[in-house]
Write a structure and sequence with these properties.
alpha/beta; Rossmann fold; 7-stranded mixed beta sheet; two-stranded parallel sheet; globular
Length: about 400
């Protein structure tokens, strides 16, 4: 091991603030590699290739950019305090400065640096490096920690709740507001309410209800994508997980970000009791209230209840009261936004804008006629979803 590697190993062993960086597989392999014995070629080549393989699995061959990404996402005491508006203590700040210098140096290691003196004449895969400013980039992230988050909250803007854990969705819906047409008034109401949440003003829980395919879920996800860099995050939960809302609130209440708890296609049947947790959230109970969190739900039913004639029967003397409680659940949402099926003119307008966005040039009357025929043939009727499917068929040449 040459003097440079010995020095890097000493600095590696002194890392305290950014120790969590080693949890990333590629970084872990690199930190091991700089301490490997180059005088044992077989073991060294194995460690070398383990590192490169882990780096490639991150869909990159650029060591500098990957290492910076991992550091910017790391959850540590300095960034947690910064996100809460606090200044790390001088000793912590000093340690952070030295560690960033170490990782800056590490990020500039080339394949040649790590194979100099290696007794091996076979092929070895390589990586690239680039000029990155670790200290400058990290200081900027510290100043914006309340927007970008840290740890898993920096990895994505959308999350799911699974097996009692909130997990980031790495390949989430990239829907943009600019790609949604029609329903400007309805969408504006959702946007304005979300901005109130982001800006720390009183925000309402929102029910987006109406016909299928009208863009209710797309609106919510597009809003999250639009404002992710202002600290907005979405956690999707199923109806059965509504009971876990207090546990979710406990985890996120102290996180300096803004959260939408999102439930898609929500409806209940009589006899179900999982709506109790939702009711508690909507009514702001102590166990389910957090100033940084609102709940957004979509439903094809305004009253959220699937009711049959048999539900009206029975010997429960309080049956009417029970049914009224369930039917009034939607009224507990502070904001209710109706996405109704578009009429012919609205549908044609959506089709036209989608066609223009996709570079399709057709006579307006011909486009309108074909769009109407497609809606009738599909059996789904007019809706933004149908319009999107029609335009997709034009793009693919199937119409």
């Amino acid at each position: 091991m040459n003097d440079k590697m010995i020095d890097l190993c000493r600095k590696r062993d002194a890392v305290v603030i950014l120790r969590g960086v080693a949890e990333d597989e590629a970084c872990c392999r690199l930190l091991r590699l700089i301490g490997s014995d180059i005088e044992k070629p077989d073991e060294y080549v194995s460690d070398y290739c383990d590192f490169v393989a882990a780096l490639y699995r991150e869909n990159t061959s650029n060591l500098s950019e990957h290492l910076l990404k991992v550091i910017l996402e790391d959850e540590n005491i300095c960034i947690v305090q910064a996100a809460k508006g606090k200044t790390p203590e001088p000793e912590m700040r000093e340690a952070l400065i030295h560690e960033l210098k170490f990782f800056q140096e590490l990020s500039q290691l080339t394949p040649e640096d790590l194979t100099d003196g290696l007794d091996f004449d076979g092929f070895l895969p390589k990586w690239t490096i680039s000029d990155v400013d670790f200290a400058g980039s990290y200081n900027e992230r510290l100043s914006l920690a309340g927007n970008f988050g840290y740890g898993k909250w920096a990895k994505s803007c959308m999350f799911i709740y699974r097996d009692g854990k909130i997990e980031p969705v790495m390949k989430h819906d990239k829907q943009k507001l600019s790609e949604l047409f029609g329903y400007e008034k309805e969408r504006r109401a959702v946007i304005d309410n979300t901005l109130a949440l982001i800006e720390g003003r009183p925000a309402q829980n929102v029910l987006l209800y109406g016909d299928a395919g009208t863009g209710k879920s797309s609106t919510v996800k597009a809003v999250v994508n639009e404002y992710r860099e202002r600290g907005l995050r979405l956690i999707e939960i199923t109806k059965e997980q509504l009971r876990d809302i207090p546990a979710i609130i406990d985890e996120i209440s102290d996180i300096p970000l803004r959260f939408i708890l999102f439930t898609d296609d929500l409806s209940f049947t009589s006899g179900e009791d999982c709506f109790g947790a939702l009711k508690a959230m909507l009514e702001g109970s102590a166990a389910a209230k957090a100033s940084n969190t609102v709940i957004y739900a979509t439903s094809n039913r305004r009253h959220l209840i699937r009711e049959s004639f048999s539900d009206r029967e029975g010997d429960d003397v309080h049956r009417n009261d029970s049914m009224q409680e369930m039917l009034s659940l939607s009224a507990r949402f502070g904001l209710r936004v109706n996405f109704s099926r578009p009429d012919k003119n609205e549908y044609t307008s959506i089709v036209k804008e989608l066609a223009e966005m996709n570079g399709i040039v057709l006579d307006e009357k011909e486009l309108s006629l074909k769009a109407e025929q497609f809606a009738m043939a599909s059996g789904n009727g007019r809706s933004p979803r149908t319009a999107k499917q029609f335009v997709a068929s034009l793009v693919s040449g199937n119409n």
